[in-house]
Amino acid sequence: MTTLPKDLAAHEIGPGLAGFWRALPREGRFLLSTVALQHLGRGMTLPFTVIYLHEVRHFSLDAAGTIMALLALVAALAAGPMGSLTDRLGARWMLISAGVAQSLGAVAMAFATSLPVAVLGAVLMGLSQSIGWSASNTFISALVRGPLRQRYFGVNFALLNLGIGVGGLIAGAFVDVARPVTFEAIFLLDAVLVLIPGIWLLGPLRHVHARAEHPGDGSSAATYATVLRLPGMRWVLLLAILTSFVGYGQFEAGVPAFARTISQVGTETIGVLFACNTAVIVLLQFWVLHRIEGHRRTRIGLLMLVIWLCAWGAMGLSGLLPDTLAAAALVVLFGALFGLGETLLQPTLPAITNDMAPDHLRGRVNAAQSTAFMGGGVLGPLAAGFLLDRDLGGLFIGIIIGGLAVTAWVMLRLERIISPAVNGVLVTAGDEQPVR
């Protein structure tokens, strides 16, 4: 049996996706095999949750945005305790628990004819997210490390988006705001698909607990205070808040709401937006992984911010051309550009976080990042709901652009603090100078 985590130098990993797959331990292959299918249901529901709550269940955009923010708030508040449990119980059991909570939340959301039921669904989904991010990254880090870990994060993200994008395309052609049963169906399907990884976690992966023992030398207590003292950790947390606010927090709430209410495009266009986003990630992620290896992760992050700036520019322009083919094209272009930026962000920020984390603190480190990320996820939908409900689309885009500028400044500050190794720069043996 392969000793875990498996660690290979970059030159020991074969070329292409086939070489990556051969380099993985058996456990890593099992874990990757269900990622796309697991997220297919999420892809069906993710682009349309705000539309569902607003146009089918007749909640105001303010209320719909608040429900999405509540989901993120629960995830943020629960992430700390869940990170401690991940270090204590192991990531495997936490991943199983996350699947169950997400499934129950999707069932509740399917029948959210009243505000309390919608709130219940959001709370359960938020609880799932509070567990899932920390436990998933911790579990992956227990399987692989080094260059193989960075590639794993990237391929995992591509497969995740494959499921989300295909799901969004299917749902975009299937759901109809005049037929609530179509929305109920996609939430119920999500409730089933999210449980699939449990088959592997209870079977072939049952021996991988992803629970590290404390070193026992008293050098670092297993507390969140210790986590915050890690070099660069506070800047990483601020970076997580900002990238969530200007990116993912809007992708689930602000983007569909802006596209529908300001750009006035149809649900089919929003489905194509998510499908195009996925296509870019799936087609380019592995090529991007090869190109960025050995380069500073913070500089890669800056390039991502420039691409996201172009994406939000396209979205803002679509609002000036409402209910036109040009608006629809610009909305889809946003999805493509946003996806290109994601291919740069997702292999780098999780790798920075996990490369700076001691094994016995890994659950807490990932939970702290998850909390920060969800903090941005709370502010994002709240800001989007408040501004777009008042037809302030221009101000909404302006705030996002300002947020991108602040994020770039934080990225440069982080670069000064973390070591070249944590920043993904190859260093020659016996030499502290980066190779490139």
**Roughly how many Å apart are the termini?**
36 Å
> How many β strands by DSSP?
2
* Helical content (DSSP H or I, runs of 4+): over 70%
Q: How is the largest sheet built, in terms of strand order?
A: 1-2
Strand pairing plus helix content: what structural class? Answer: mainly alpha
Shape call:
globular
The low-pLDDT segments are 429-436
Strand content: under 5%
Oligomer class:
single chain
CATH architecture title of the largest domain: Up-down Bundle
Identify the CATH homologous superfamily of the largest domain. MFS general substrate transporter like domains
C-alpha Rg, in Å? 21 Å
Q: Determine the number of helices (DSSP H or I, runs of at least 4 residues).
A: 19
Q: What number is the mean pLDDT? A: 87
Order of helices and strands: EHHHHHHHHEHHHHHHHHHHH
Domain Major facilitator superfamily (MFS) profile: 1-420
Membrane topology: Multi-pass membrane protein
Protein name: Major facilitator superfamily protein
InterPro entries: MFS, MFS_dom, MFS_trans_sf, MFS_Transporters
Structural description of this entry:
There is one protein chain. The protein has 436 residues and is mostly helical. The chain folds into two domains: 25-209, Growth Hormone, Chain: A (Up-down Bundle); 227-422, Up-down Bundle (Growth Hormone, Chain: A). The protein is 74% helix and 1% strand. The chain contains 19 helices and two strands. It has helices at residues 16-23, 26-33, 35-38, 40-45, 49-56, 61-89, 91-110, 115-143, 147-174, 180-193, 197-201, 224-228, 233-261, 267-292, 297-318, 325-345, 349-355, 362-388, 393-417, and strands at residues 6-7, 144-145. The protein has a two-stranded parallel sheet. Helix 6 runs parallel beside helix 8 and helix 13 packs parallel to helix 18 (362-388). The protein is globular, with a radius of gyration of 21 Å. InterPro entries: MFS (IPR011701), MFS_dom (IPR020846), MFS_trans_sf (IPR036259), MFS_Transporters (IPR050171). Residues 1-420 form the Major facilitator superfamily (MFS) profile domain. The chain crosses the membrane at residues 59-79, 152-175, 181-202, 235-251, 271-289, 301-321, 327-345, 366-388, 394-412. Keywords: Cell membrane, Membrane, Transmembrane, Transmembrane helix, Transport. GO terms for molecular function: transmembrane transporter activity.
